[in-house]
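Q: I'm writing up a methods section and want to include an example of the input and output format. Could you take the sequence below and give the corresponding predicted structure tokens, formatted cleanly so I can copy it straight into the document?
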Amino acid sequence: MKHFIIHRYLCREIFYPFLLVLLILTFVLLMGRILQLMDLMINKGVGFPDILRLILFLLPPFLAITVPIALLVGILIGLGRLSRENEILVMKSAGISLYQLVPPVALLSLAAFVFTLLLQFYIVPVVNSAGRSLLADLARQKAGIGIKEKVFNDDFPGLVLYANRVSVDGSTMGELFISDSRTAGSPLTIVARLGRLISDPASGDVTLRLENGSTHMTGADLSTYRKMDFGVYDISLDMSTSLQASAGDHRLDEGEMTPRLLLRELSSTDLSPRQRNLILMELNKRFALPLTCIVFALLGMPLGMEKHRTAKSRAFVIALGVVIVYYTLQLAGDALGETGNLNPVLATWAPNLVLGGSGAWFFIITARELPLPDLTRLKSATVAVTNAWRRRS
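A: Here is the clean output for your methods example:
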């Protein structure tokens, strides 16, 4: 009964900071995209329901990142407060060891692990695939809404478009005049009787299909002139690129596959070494990223129990240092694994192995009542290394 009360108390002390930090981190990540999404709604005419759907599609990938970080901060804040107010010392005096405090932390980290695992396995691939289809539809809407009749339109890079007539939905235009300067040194002038916007959900591109017109090209020295009549002529507007930049970087195709599809793709004999490495790394990340919850919990317990006057600020500094180290190792592993300089499986699991081993070592030291190394310098050291690398680059 005594242990049950203490375990419930520890769960409450960790859960509330975890929930607060989770909301704040997720909101901060969303704010990085909100202004761009608002630009789509205000200036490009994208409806609020579609903006809301884009936000919902962004949430699962963001949560897969913020849940482990929030769990680490919650453990550091919760146990740090108990240590600062000598409650940990009282528990030790009552004969409660560090190992007896593990169950509530293990329960929370296991719940976070299962939640993140479900996100990575089932939800994130679905929302990535649905996001691609939605972006293709929005690309067509954006192109159609942006084109006004009897107005020169330069929203498309390298193109200036004039349409004498535009249908209500913007998908059909009549009597078009287009200046195409996308090819350096060879500007092209196009006139056509009819134009239609066609979207391709698979590639996310938007094509302007012109009918019954002609192209006019002059040489760079203006000494030559070439005219070509056509029945059908396609111009790629490629609106998906700008929309993806506004709604969030679209992941590789591997990010849209379920683990079963990844395994099926991995068995294909037509893959290049780089593609095989990418698929193998993506498959391992589906397990490695959720396991970060367990790794961060293993690190958070010994680090959080270190007594300090400013528990909250110290918790954020340590959490920031741990996260920087983790994602630095992950980026380095991704680069080495993709090129084949390091085994893709080892490259994916390297951050968990390094931090997990460190967490196990810290846990054993703390359980034996030995002092931990001062990790408050981790942030400044990491920032110094990063700044030196940037200056060298």
